[in-house]
Automatic annotation (TrEMBL):
Domain called Rhodanese: residue spans: 275-358
Occurrences of domain Cyclic nucleotide-binding (ranges): 156-258
Superkingdom of source: Bacteria
Protein name as catalogued: CRP-like cAMP-binding protein
Annotated organism of origin: Azospira oryzae
InterPro entries: cNMP-bd_CS, cNMP-bd_dom, cNMP-bd_dom_sf, Rhodanese-like_dom, Rhodanese-like_dom_sf, RmlC-like_jellyroll
Length: 360
């Protein structure tokens, strides 16, 4: 399938406000379609959540009052999505061969929101205390590694309130990190959340005298949130496998800007009701715990296996996550939500008011 050029996108409104890096990403999500001479564009296509643009050719527009007009590609009016002009056309007919470009309206709105807020983020102030790794200022609009289209649309970042986005970009600290540097040590107190802009990291855990690799992380992926959400010590170590750039967010900012809006808890009654309507119980304890007193119908997804399960869970299902106390389940619910899944955690866990549910 033909791919639209960045130059063509830059001539369209409001797409032209996006950075060149963002337009290059967006090009992969655009659809091109053709109309033959005399072929009509169904009016419902203008109401299907798509922003449609006339790239080549001419369209004859007919209006409710009986009047008409011709829209020509390259004109000022054609730089805007079809159907946004007033009065709105009732019929659109191709005059000669016509090429149209379509982009999902919701996707475009998310990108424009982040782009505009990023432009206002300003230059970061130097910290009072020098960081362990050199800190940089940045043009957030060029952060296509950390905030790529996939991250913004398929993860919970696209659900953040705009006010949180603005502050989040101001609070992130950008660090260049060499290969081999240990970023998080197993057993340490959690104090920060990290988002990878470039480079790769390795997540490991010590089992006996052996260091076991749990996951490999790359651009757009995050780590460090589990200990922050669960208020626990780090359960794994993270080391840079290659040199790269990280975005670091302190615990207080993480709690206020990410944890609070993204982590959703349910009471016993709310959890039971959601499961009765089709949600799936997810037990994040060890298999031995699950076999002993797991809830009927639950699937077992231990905390240490969650990252490997991304992509295997059904994005169209809802998940209610639980553990013994709610500590482990809150961390997993956040991880799933961050990946775009619809997930809630059971407040209080099996030690809480849900204990009686197992007897029903």
């Amino acid at each position: 399938m033909a791919k639209v050029s960045v130059e063509a996108l830059a001539r369209l409104s409001p797409l032209g406000n996006l950075s060149g890096e963002r337009l290059a990403e967006l090009a992969a999500y655009c659809r091109l379609e053709s109309l033959a001479p005399g072929q009509a564009l169904p009016r419902q296509r203008l109401e299907a959540g798509l922003s449609l643009y006339l790239l080549q050719g001419e369209l004859r527009l007919s209006f409710a009052d009986g009047s008409g007009a011709v829209l020509q590609a390259g004109s000022e009016a054609a730089a805007w999505p079809l159907g946004l002009q007033e009065p709105r056309p009732q019929a659109l007919l191709a005059v000669g061969n016509v090429e149209l470009l379509g982009v999902d309206g919701q996707l475009l709105d998310i990108l424009l929101t982040w782009e505009q807020l990023a432009a206002n983020a300003g230059v970061q102030k130097a910290p009072a205390v020098a960081p362990a790794a050199p800190e940089e200022t940045t043009d957030w609009r060029q952060m296509s590694g950390a905030f790529n289209v996939q991250v913004l649309t398929a993860s919970a970042l696209g659900q953040l309130p705009p006010a949180h986005i603005d502050v989040l970009l101001q609070r992130f600290r950008r660090l260049r990190v060499p290969a081999g540097e240990v970023l998080i040590r197993e057993g340490d107190v959690g104090d920060a959340y990290y988002l990878i802009e470039s480079g790769s990291c390795e997540v490991t855990r010590r089992l006996g005298n052996k260091e076991v690799v749990l996951a490999q992380l790359g651009a757009g992926q995050a780590f460090g949130e589990e200990a922050l959400v669960a208020n626990a010590r780090r359960n794994a170590s993270v080391t840079m496998k290659s040199k790269g750039v990280l975005l670091k967010l302190g615990k207080e900012d993480f709690d206020a800007l990410l944890r609070a809006p993204l982590l959703k808890g349910l009471s016993r009654d709310e959890a039971q009701d959601r499961v009765a309507r089709g949600a799936v119980w997810v037990d994040v304890r060890y298999p031995a715990e699950f076999r002993f007193d797991g809830l009927p119908g639950a699937i077992n997804l231990p905390v240490n296996e969650v990252r490997g399960a991304f992509g295997s869970l059904d994005p169209n299902r809802e998940y209610v996550v639980y553990c013994q106390s709610g500590r482990r389940s809150s961390a997993v619910a956040f991880l799933l939500t961050q990946q775009g899944y619809q997930a809630w955690w059971l407040e209080g866990g099996l030690w809480g008011p849900l204990a009686e549910t197992k007897e029903q």
